[in-house]
Amino acid sequence: MAKEKKSEKSVQKLIESAVEWFEAHPNESYNYLQLSQELGVYGRAARTEVYHMLMDLLATGFLKENTPGRFKLADRHREPELEGIFERRHNGIHNVRVEGYEEPFTVFEGNDSQALSGDHVRLQIIKGKAVRRGRAAGKVAAKKEKAGRNNGQEARVVEVIQRVPHRFVGTAQRHGNYLFVIPDNRTLDKDLYVRNEDSGKCKDGDKVVVDFVEWPAFSRNPMGKVVDILGRSGENTTEMHAILAEYGLPYKYPENLVRLADKIADGCTPEEVAQRVDMRDVVTFTIDPKDAKDFDDALSLSKLPSRHW
């Protein structure tokens, strides 16, 4: 009797694992050997059980046999698919904003299909485990979402429909014949891998501009190509150019404009001084931190006729 109960629990657990797998991969089809491999089931007897389970799920209508011996999630059991704009977060908890919904859908690391911020994606709502168990038992639970409100409901990206151009600014770290670029903007939670032939004359520690190339399936890091070397990381001019490049603003100008700018006299003319409040004789201290990229906050101290400061 105990063995029968243990066997029933094992079968039920196997069904639940298979249901979750098919729901997580609605566009893929598997034969019983492939599914056994994905679920970590080994041995002839256990894999025979997987085959019988597939036939049972086929009989209930949960699966369909799209080619002989290969099974796929039936169309009527697919979760509704939506389209939206992906927002990548450094903590691995990403968002997808869908028109008509007040709150973004939550996409966890591993369910993002390697989408990047701004990409147009197709996503599928993930329902709770209770719903999946009901399906595993052949009882499909009808759970309708209130239109316009999803309260941060979890979803998975099933397809990147269209990528937008991606450009990143970061610091290069060279490792032999390849390098990684650590993005300044940490909304990209991965370093960019750059092959030696795509790195130009980049040296370790350079601040560089990198264009996204691709993110191969099963790769930990996206691939990029160095398109400009701004200079040594930490230098003032380099960091100022990095800020401009990050926001797509120009940081290089045609030579004729540079020559014209060089002809402009340095310093303030008497006419210009007359239009301003002259604070040059007032001792003033910046209150920006020492690592600030620009110093635009300051305090001055002067003694008043009342002997107050």
Strand order of the largest sheet: 5-4-3-6-7
Count of helical regions: 7
Annotated CATH topology of the largest domain: OB fold (Dihydrolipoamide Acetyltransferase, E2P)
* Highest CATH level, the class of the largest domain: Mainly Beta
How many discrete structural domains?
Answer: 3
Low-confidence residue ranges: 1-6, 129-149
Write down how many β-strands occur, each being a DSSP E stretch of 2 or more residues: 14
CATH architecture of the largest domain: Beta Barrel
Counting helices, strands and paired strands, the structural category is: alpha+beta
Chain-averaged pLDDT: 83
The main pleated sheet reads as: 5 strands, antiparallel
Strand content: 25-35%
**What is the chain-wise order of helices and strands?**
HHHEEEEEEHEEEEEEHHHEE
Give the N-to-C terminal Cα separation: 91 Å
> C-alpha Rg, in Å?
30 Å
Overall 3D form: elongated
User: Level of helix content?
Assistant: 25-40%
Give an overview of the whole structure.
20% of the residues are buried. A 5-stranded antiparallel sheet has the order 5-4-3-6-7, with no helix packed on it. The longest helix has 23 residues, at 2-24. Helix content is 26%, strand content 27%. A hairpin with a 2-residue loop joins strand 8 and strand 9. The chain is elongated, with a radius of gyration of 30 Å. The protein has helices spanning 2-24, 32-39, 44-60, 129-136, 236-246, 255-262, 270-274; strands at residues 63-67, 70-73, 81-87, 93-97, 105-108, 120-125, 155-162, 167-175, 178-183, 192-195, 206-214, 223-232, 284-286, 298-300. Helix 2 (32-39) crosses helix 3 (44-60). It has 3 domains: 2-75, Arc Repressor Mutant, subunit A (Orthogonal Bundle); 81-162, Beta Barrel (OB fold (Dihydrolipoamide Acetyltransferase, E2P)); 167-246, OB fold (Dihydrolipoamide Acetyltransferase, E2P), CATH 2.40.50. The protein is of the alpha+beta class.
